Structure formats: structure tokens, C-alpha cells
Batch of 4 targets.
Target 1
Amino acid sequence: MGPPFALTRAKPLRPLACIVAALVLVLSATARAQAVDPATTAAARSLFEHGVAAADAGEHAAAAELLGRSLALRPSPVVAYNRAQSLAQLGRLVEASEMLVLAEQLASSDALHEAASALHAQLEARVSRLTVVTSEETDLVVQLDGRPLGSALLGTEMPIDAGPHVVSALRDGEVIASVERRIEEGESAVLTLVVPPRAQPVALVATPGPQRTSGDGSIDLPLVIALTTVGALAVAGLAIGLGVGLSSAPSPVVGNLSPGVVRFGP
């Protein structure tokens, strides 16, 4: 009769499985450490209570800030759901929708999950949509309300809160095109930036006259100066010679020759 059970050696984990297993252990240990940290729990609870009190008083901006700090200390579906309600009151529907997605993911009860899903569906119907299109997609920086808009978002419909929005195109740090539009709640809008093409530099072509160059291809300036000087001296010498010749011509001498004949003396 054999033994009631047999011991078998476990198969070794592959490297990727080992990494995943180690990561799960680390995250589990971190979660347990956060759960048993009384100081963090107390601070998160205090911020949550102050946030709820601010929301009850109609101070939704303060409530959203306090509940966000509580959520950063300790993720909670209840805190996320309450913060989503305050954000919705402020018109920040996109951020509120993301909070409800988090609440759905963390919900530990069916009632909370259903409440978050129902509110999420209501807000999604109110969220506006925007598509930004440019006539030229190269060599540009596109901004939405002063913040850079990634090239992957160009031509793609994206959720956006209702209100006035400005889309600008910059080239070399200068705004070259801009469109401003108020988008209503639940509206789907398309904003097109008509971008002027980059100005092409004008090439100036000069036609030089014949020039003598030296052996290395550069203009022989000393030769030009010498020829100019020689030419000037030649002109001056010609003028002087003419002047001297005219002034030294002999005067006519009247003799006993026939009338009309002029004799020149030595």
C-alpha cells in the first residue's frame, strides 16, 4: 500500500512569472502597510469629513480640494464618488467622470457601484466634445487654452468642459493662427486652424562683370589698383604733352617771300 499522499517538486517559475509574483507581493505588502497606518487613516478621514462639510455648505471648490487630498492619502470609492459630485457642481464634468470611473473600480458594494454607474451615465451625456483640425501639421505647436496639445490629439474627438475655449497654432514661438469659440454643454464642435505656409526666403542673384582672379579664384585687387593707377597716369601724361606741344610751336616770321607764304624761323 502506497503512502496516502506524495510530495512533488514544484516547477520553477519562468523569469516573467517571477517578476509578476514579486510585484504582487510588493503591492500587497504596501497596501497592508497603508491599511494599518493609523496616522494616514486618521488624516484621510479628517480631510473627508471636512470635504463633506464644505460640500453641504455649497463650497464645492473647497470640497473638491479637500476630498482630492483625502483620496491621495487613501484611495476610497466613497471619497471618489463624493468628489465627483462636487466637481460636477463646478462644471468640471470631464474630471468628475474620471472620478466615477475610479469609484466603479474600487466599489466594494453593489449599491455604490450602481450609484456611481448611474451618475457616470448622466454626466457623460452632458460632456462636450471637441475636435481640433489644422491645415498644416508640420513645424507647429498647437495649444488649447494655453496648454500644449499633443499631435496625437489633432483630428481626434476629445471630451472637454463647456465654456469658452481658445485654440492657437505657434511657429517659432509666435502665434500665427487662433480660433476662439464658446462650446455649450453636450455640444460636439470642430475647430479648424487655417495656418499660413512658412514664407520662403527670396534669393537675390547678382550678375558680376568680367573680373580677373588670382590663382586661388579670388579677385586680384592689387592688379585692379595698379591698372587703374597706370591708366590715370597715362591720361595725365597725354594732357601734359599736348599742353607743352601747343605752347612750344614757333611763331610765323614774315619775310620777302611771296604773299601768302609763311616762313618759320629756327
Target 2
Amino acid sequence: MTSRDVHAPAGPPHLSVVLVTFNSRDDVERCLDSLFAELSLIGPSEVIIVDNASEDGTAELVRRKAPMARTIALDSNIGFAAAANKGAFAASGEFLLFLNPDVVLLEGAVRSLLKHVQHSSRNQIVGPQFRFLNGDAQPSFFREPTFFRLALELFLPYRVALPLLTEQPLRSRKVGALSGACMMMTRKTFEALGGFDERFFLYSEDFDLCIRARRLGIDVIALPEGAVVHALGSSAWKNPEAFYYHYYLSKILFARKHFGFLGSTVAPLFVVTGLFLRLFGYACMGALPSRSEYRVRGRALARAVGRLLRPMSSRPEA
């Protein structure tokens, strides 16, 4: 199904979907197909696609695939948070759905999220259950971000740390944080939070939004009955150096913002120490003839560490 199959709303849109793309040509078509299938069943809606100066023809593809969507093609890559804010503040729906182009919505996902937000007596941010491409459950709901949990993530192997950082509720309930790859809230909630913090170029802006929401008494809700497929890492591994750089820079910025003295002084040292431990681990794994991917990751991580060790500018480079 394409946007041509979705009737234009007779009145103001009920739901606004904000989709931020950057070199997303390989993923965005499947995302849009699933999105328009969902929107055809829920009434007036609009789709706003903000393209962060893609160089692979993403903007041209979405204009052809989704002529009824509003495409905002930016002249430069301003990062996810700033681009998402541009889309949200250009939207006119009562409800906002933020969606990554590497997400495919399963049947009923948008309706489940919208129904929950609509019928809640409290302001909420709601997110669905993510699934891997093979259908297995993907970690989707996170415990409250704390300095201790940041240390666990930095020093433990990812597979060991993940169960300590996430939770897997069987029914809808409050959690510490959600992934921005797919989350819904009312426009009023988003405006009350002032949108995403644009100091986060990429990564951690979703956790920052959730922690600020909880401090204002806004519930952060896991909705496992809604489900989407998330091609986790599909965009990150196109440029692993950029992924490592922005991911760990976002951790430093998040810690400085939310963890006070420890976040400003100890967290950057923890990040750098954790990265050197990972470099050592990649070097050991890469020495095995059958694990050449770790050599590639190690080289990318080493370059990212070099960038992180330079004095940070007020605006992370793209």
C-alpha cells in the first residue's frame, strides 16, 4: 500500500507521524508500506518526513513513494533530535508518532498505541514491543537510567549488561525509558517537554526525553501488545565510526546533564576507560582468523576514540 491508497483527511489530522531519514533508502520503503497500511484504518492523519541531507536518494524516493506526505529536505545533517523537532513543530495533529525508517509496523501497532494514549486520563509517552527480523523479542523497555547503570553498560560486555538495563513486562505498565525508534504522545505532552534536546545530535535524546517526562509526572509506558519489527543496527553499521562516536558522545552529554558532579567529572573518564577495554576486546577477537569483523569494528572504534579525546565542540560534527 502507498500513500495514494490513503484518503486525504477531510478535516484536521488526528495523528501526525514524524519520520526522520538519513541515507535510509534501503529501509524506508518497507517502513512506509507498513505505515500507510496502518493509517488507512485510523482516520485523518498526516505524515511528515524530515530528510537530513541524505546522499543516497532517500528524499527523492520518499517523494515518489509518498506524494501525500510532506517532505522537508534539509540542506545539512542537523541530527535526529533537531530534525524530529522540526517535523513535530510543523505537524498539526493532536497526537504525535515518532518513527525510525528501519521500523516496520506490524498489524494493529499504531492503533494500539493511539488507543492507549487516547483513553488515558494521564499524560503519557507510549512505546511498543520491538522484534528482530526473525520475530524474536528485541529489548524494548528500559530501566531508569542511572549513573550505576551507565557504568554497567560501559564496563560489561553488551550481552551481559543488557538484562540489567532492560525489562520485559508482559502487559502495559510504567518503565524507566523507551526507544525513540517508535514512540507516541500527545502534542501537548511534547510541547510541555519542549521537544527533544537538540544538544543530542544522535542517540540518548529519547532517554533524556523520558527522564524529563517522569520528573514532570508524565508516565512512560511500555505497551507490549503493540509490536513492530526493528532492523536494529541497519543504519549504524553503514558507518561504524560515526555510530561509535555519536553513541558514546551522547553518553557523556547525558551524564553531564542528569548525574550532577559524578556525571561531569567521573562519567567521561568511565566512557574513555570503557572504550579502551572494548578496543582491547576487539583486538583479541580480531586476532582469530574467523572473526575479521572485529578488526573492522576495532579500527572504527579507534578512530571514534581519537575524535572523542579531542576537545569537544558545542555541536557534535555530523
Target 3
Amino acid sequence: MKLLILISLLLSFITTQAQLTIHGYIIDTETKEPIPGATIVEKGKTNGTTSDIDGKYRLAVDSNSVIHFTFIGFKDLLVPAKNLNGETVEMTSEFPGDDIFIPHYSYSRTKSVGFLGDANRMPYGFLFHYFKPYFFRRYFGASLHTWIKTDLKSNSDFLVQLSKHEIINLNSYKLGAIIIFHNRDLLINNEKLHYRDILIKTNNKLYNVINLEAGVNFRQQTKSGIKFDSTGINIGLYRYFRWSLTHLGIAINTFKDQIEYSLSCYQTLSKNNLFLNRLQFGFIYISYHDYKESVISLRYYLD
């Protein structure tokens, strides 16, 4: 009897310690693109690995263990090891949708650089954005976006935008806050113009595809050597079309004696090609009170 008990305990121990090799691919639920650099760890242990450039992974684990999948900007995922025999694991972004100046999220893409230029006056420009999803292992959800345009002579346009995302986070509604500093120096018809805007607004995201923005624009303006201040209302509507990866938007600035508006279109170049999926082409038409801009941009997401 004692021998049977001993054999039973031994077999139980061997079973619980049995090893298997899990393997498969990790992709984005929304875009179906592979997720390189995701962390795969045997829960409760230090045994782990990361996915390669194609989202592929392989790891030897205990057969009865649970596997923990993590990646910045995506929801954590727990899957029993026995279910990971070549299956494709889909991870869902924590931040689906889009922001006015930074189309095409997943927010796992934390940095982008690119070119932009105004065909009319300032053909040379540079843009950059950086998103910080976590800070000391806590959700932070803030981003920096900046650009500069110039003709290398008398015209320049400099913008800095700071955004705090998902202050309120519900299934169908998300609230964010945006502050923008925008400085423009121009020479138009031999007249020097200077504009300095500080724009404070809210971003109201509905169902992760529609953005409604509203805020106040404080403007300091110099024209013909005369300085004066004005306050305007800013309203914007932006729509993301998932099936085509297209972003369309319209924004209106209203002041006491003038109305300004912009029309924007951003297009990600591919759903399936890993390189082209990181490229985004944009066009913005802006009608200011004293001049017009036709801005073309090309952005590349670094990660």
C-alpha cells in the first residue's frame, strides 16, 4: 500500500513538472500586423522571451503553467500554456483611435519623425512626436508633438502641442486635454506679421473613431507695428475610417472680426506591409486671415 502511494506521488510530481515548448505568433487585433518585441513570461517565474520582428516566439515552459503576454500600449493577456501550440495570439491596444495631430494609433508606436512643408511660403520643415504611455509602471498617457516650418529667410512657423489622454476613460467615451503654443513670423507684401497663439482645448473621443474638440485660443498679434490681443473659439471634428486607415478633419477658429479654418487628410500607406504601415502621408489646407497654407507631410513611425 505504501509503495502504491509513493508511486502515485512520484507520477503526480513528474506530471506537474512536465515541460512543453510553446510557440506561435503575436499580432495586433485591429491591424492584424505582427507585434515585435512583446514579452512572453511564464507567470510567477522569471522564465521568458520576446517576439521577433515577425511577431514569432518560442519558449519552453511547464505544461500546467499560465503564460503572460505584455507589450507597452496593449492590454495584458493570460493564456494557458497548453493552448499555445502554434496558435496566433491577438493583443488589443489600450489606446485605439486617433489624435488630431498624430493619426494612426496603437499607442505602442511611441515615436515618429517626418517632413512637412508649406507649398506657398515655407517649404522646409520637420516634425516629431513622442508618446509616454507609462511612467514608473503607472499609466501616464501624455504626448508631445512639435513642428517647425521655414523658408530659411523671413518666414517661420513653430508649434508645440502637449496632450493628456484619457483623463476619463469609458467604453464609448474618452476625455483628453490639449494645450498648444503656436508662433508664426511672416513677411507678406513687405509687411511683417507676428502671431502667437496659446490654445487650450478638450478632446472628446466617441467610440474611438470620432474626435470632437473645443477650446479657447488666446492670440497676441503684431501687424504694421501695432500689437493687439484677441480671444477666439476653436472647434474641430475629426473622423477615423478603420477600413482604409484614413483620417479626415475640419477645424474652425472664430475671432471677433475673422474666421479661420483648416481641412486635413492623413493616409497610412498599407495595412499589411510592415514598412509601409509605418509611413503616413498627410495634407492640410489652412486658411488664415492674412494668408493661406497648403501643407504636405510625410511621417515615419520609429516604433
Target 4
Amino acid sequence: MRLLISVALLSCAGAMLSAQESQVVQIEPTPAKLTERPAPPAEGETIIPIGTRVPLVLLNSVSTKHASPDDLVYLESVYPVVVNGRIVIPPGTYVSGRVTSVKRPGRVKGKGELYVRFEQIILPNGIIRDLTGSVGALDGRSPEGFDKEEGRITSEGNKGGDAATIGESAATGATIGVIAGAAGSNAGLGLGIGSAAGAAAGLIGVLASRGPEAILEKGTQLDMVLDRGLVFKDEDLEFDNPLGAGRTRDAGNGPDPNRNRQGNSGRRFPL
């Protein structure tokens, strides 16, 4: 009898183990994602890879006040770009591009906006390639703002200038009011009226005028980032002087960081 009970218990245990084994979920290992690598260059070719930065200087000025979409911009490289120990873009290389979008600053709020893309490169030996590039960095001297994610160049805000305009107008009005009030034996009343009138005139001037424009001045330095690789034959990259002889043309003084703060630049509505 005991033997029969033991056999029955063993049978039940075996059935339970079999049921548990049948419920085990087999997890297939997820294959590791392979990082896509660019195709290696063919023999006798050199590839300037995507993401390469090319330091440039602007040869013409661009501003939201005068620029329109499709206006051309002209630049020149200022530092050699090296791939695999070889100079592939020497100083003095020309780059051209165009303005893709322009937005002027608003009269009450809103900053000026400027977008630029690069389209062609001309090496010093005359080799030309079309390219796709975007702005990757902006001259640190420039008062303009720069959004790296969107490539947007924005004008500097002018809240301080607006406050100064209203304050200066109020002060001028107060002075005139005091003089007029003194003549009428009521300097205090003249002061109040003059201050209010001057502040109102300054506010009207602020509301009727635009804020600072976004300007890329001649001589502004910036980085171009290649959005796709460039392929050259090795013979295309033969240069008489790969380090260049330096720029012989006047590239300008570049951006003035105090452009919007000097003199009466913050004054929008002179009395």
C-alpha cells in the first residue's frame, strides 16, 4: 500500500515538473544593432566625412534688413582641414551658399531670424564640388544668438535699449516741463507733466520702431558642418601650396559685440 502511494506521489510530482517546464518562456537574444559605417573610399579616392567642420570667414555682409531668400553668401576657409594626415581643404578655399529664410524683428516683440545653407566649394587648384552644409558655430564676438539644433541666427534683444529710450525721453520732458513750469510759477506741475509727456513719447517711439536687426558682418567667422560626405580623387587634392599663402583680400573687421550699445543706438525715437 505504501509503495502504491509513493509511486502515485512520484507520478504527480513528475507531471507538475513537466507542466512547469512547458510554461517556461524562451527569450530569444536581441541581436546587437550594427553601427552603419560609411563605405570605405575606393582606391585612389579620399572621402571628407559627414560632420566635418570647416572654419570660414564671411566675405560679404548679410542682414535681416536687406537680405531676401536665395541671396548668395560668399566665404573663404581660414584653417586647413586634414583627413588621414593629408590636407584636403586648404586655407583660401572658397565656399558659397545662400540665405534660405529671413524674418525681420518685430515692432513690439520678436527677434530677427536668419537661416543660411552652404552649397558649393572651390579648391585653390580650381576643383569644384557641390555640397550640403549648415552653420555649426558662430563668431564669439557676434551679439547675435545662434541655435545649433536648428541653425537659426537671431538678433540681439533690446529691452535695455527700450527702457533707456523711455527714461531719456522722460528726463528730457521733465527738464522742459520744469523750465516751462518755472516760467508759470509752478515748477512741480511742469515737472510731472513734462515727465509723463516725455515717457509717452519714448513709449510711442519704442512701439513704432523695430528691434535690432540680425547682421552677419563682413569678416564674421563661422564653422560650416558638412551634412554629407565629399568624395575626391587623389589627384584632385594636389596643391602647389597646401597651407596657402594667407588671405590677401580685406575680409573686414568682423562683428562688433557692442554694435547695439554704442552712442545712441538704443535710442529709437529722438525728441
